Amino acid sequence: MNQLKHLAIIMDGNGRWAKQKGKIRTQGHKKGIQTVREITKWCAKNDISYLSLYAFSTENWNRPKTEVDFLMKSLEKYLLQETHTYHQNNIRFKAIGNIETFSNPLKTLIKDLEQSTSSNTALTQILALNYGSKDEIKRAFEKILLEKTYEKESDIQKLIESNLDTSEIPDVDLLIRTGGEMRLSNFLLWQISYAELFFTPTLWPDFNTNELREIIQSYQTRIRRFGSL
Ligand code: IPE
Ligand code: IPE
Ligand code: MG
User: What three-state secondary structure class fits 176?
Assistant: First the structure.
């Protein structure tokens, strides 16, 4: 049995889903949030320890301001409304990415939810917010050089990993991208170095626990060699 501690998902296809239905893009994001809720709860009940979800990339600022504003508002609403879901389902919340650029109320919301859910143990849900892998590695090097963390750790790999946003979190075992694109879009590049990759054409708002179960079954049939024979 392949272990599946850390599942990561690039949640793509909200805009196309909306377009197909003759709706505006933001309706796709709205529906996508329901999928986030459903998939997160399922993972908490099915023995997955870490679920990383790519919610907003460092490149997504290039979208029209109206869409960016909608996504930020939706995030704020989601974190407020979902607080009870995290507690009811024993889920810890953690944000990765550079949240320093967010508004003060949003930053406070993120920090408070991280704090209040910190002792929940069924699942850690990791939301990637203003996240880019290159930006994360760049910030790690800034910390290493400016805060001189290299003085405390001589193992260079450990030094890098402990300064990434994902320090304390094991590497990704399985990465799924919905929406049909065959790229990584700057997501967790260091942490997926040995992950199994799955690309599905299903648009994120249509993704569900049945398809996730099938992908996990297929993951279980893969032979993870890690360079050995
Ligand atoms: C993913 O869906 C959600 C975010 C990037 C926030 P998209 O908005 O990228 O949807 P498509 O790819 O345009 O269909
Ligand atoms: C990746 O989706 C980012 C998120 C899911 C948050 P994008 O839609 O932004 O990726 P590209 O632009 O197709 O690479
Ligand atoms: Mg997209």
Answer: strand
